Amino acid sequence: VQLQASGGGLVQAGGSLRLSCAVSGLTFGNSAIAWFRQAPGKQRDLVAAISSEGNAYYQDAVKGRFTISRDNAKNTLYLQMNSLKSEDTAVYYCATDSVRGRGTQVTVSS
What we know:
This protein is an all-beta fold. It has strands spanning 2-6, 9-12, 17-24, 33-38, 45-50, 56-58, 66-71, 76-81, 90-95, 104-109. It starts with a strand and ends with a strand.
């Protein structure tokens, strides 16, 4: 199983980014999958998750700003991030219940 996140970058506060996670090696449509992030010196935390049926969960800090979605035909997970804040700066990565992919850096300048 491989998960590869992309789409990170440097953006000003208030800006937007869209992350993608390409998944291979598992039946993507049957799998719950999530976005995590980890900032320097901080614990990893769950940002958002989506079930195989498309039900979404968000941590309170990103509700109303981030949207998680999936395209089962493309085996791809997305995270649309709007109204970005400096505290959103972190390495973002996607993960299933057993596999974590390589992350992508998101840096929000204030």
